[in-house]
Amino acid sequence: MMIVLGNCLRKRMSMNSTISIVLFLAFLFFVSATGARSLINGQSHTLFARFPRAADGICAAMIETWGYVCEEHKVTTADGYILSMQRIPASRSGAKPDKPPVLLQHGLLMDAMTWVLNPPDQSLAFILADNGYDVWLSNTRGTKYSRGHTSLSAFDLAYWDWSWDELVAYDLPAVVQHVSDQTGQKPHYVGHSLGTLVALAAFSKNGLVTALRSAALLSPIAYVNQVPSALTKGAAHAFLAEDLYWLGVQELNPREPMVLEVVETLCTSLGLDCTNLMTPFTGPNCCLNSSITSPFLDHELQPTATKNAIHLSQMVRQGSIAKFDYGAPGLNVERYGQPTPPVYEMASIPHEFPLYVSYGGQDQLSDPGDVQTLLDSLRDHNSDQLVVQYREDYAHADFVFAVNANQIVYYPLMAFFGRN
């Protein structure tokens, strides 16, 4: 199927080198949850070299160093991927939780470090733990600590034969089930960016709604055809991800030297301001904590499957939320029993399931217009089970890295949990 897919999605590469560089960079940060600077003072790969990635697990690297107890867990999905999870089972003072578990799911090109990069009074995972919640962090397949498989190596092409469809079908159910098995309780769910898309898709198929207490969606990614970033749209409409797949790039790893050289070339040849490359892609984040730059560079960005990026690009072009399109009616019939991919209908999300939706006016990935399309599809949702929060000055990364997100987002979020 992978070879057939590569041939089916092949297109002629006619862009000149400058446009290719621009679109390649845009694609790499598409739907990224990143909030720290990628380049600082015009430096790229030299900066990543200065802060090598930590060899320890997330517990040892970022959680226990703040004085919290942390447990490392492994979860095997039904299709054989071995995922890492972290649990913070007590507050910093050692108090045991008196509230239900909460499962946190990161976005694209990130891992569970998303929730613990800021100091304890600014990181959602620590804030939840200190307020009596049993906190669980999930790491998507392919990221540094979730590269295991029961029969495949991450060096095998077949290992990367997945998109976010598989995160919906396998990863999310596995980690939710593990939390329930370990705690004997149904957890609340918090997703950011791609972590919201997989949840919404699952809910639309009536999956997991009986296994969760509620879901909070920060910078929700659902409909994305109004994404205002010209570079992000350009990458999708130029079929750049498909080109990469055809060239044999099944694993998209932003930390590869080739990628870093692309970034450096872009800065020097096009005269771009390399001190803050996130703004053109995530929007102008208002309130990031500059102190996370070093730990961010130490641990992020994380790999994903090129097929996953193709799927996201299809969403931008098609304006719908559907399963992966294999590019030919026959291939779709073989996979789905119909010539076009099945659609995830947001209106099918059970109306009584508690949802908290928080989005920002400056977000160029979770565009307010796209979020409104999502909210329009939820117009029949029980009014007392849908909380919508809008913050005009917030962009994509502010929801997980802003210094004031504790007061603006997290405390209202915990109040929402307290009702469900």
From TrEMBL:
Keywords: Hydrolase, Lipid degradation, Lipid metabolism. The active site is at S193, D363, H396. GO terms for molecular function: hydrolase activity, acting on ester bonds. The keyword ATP-binding does not apply. Residues 60-118 form the Partial AB-hydrolase lipase domain. Belongs to the AB hydrolase superfamily. Lipase family. This is Lipase. It comes from Kalanchoe fedtschenkoi (Lavender scallops).
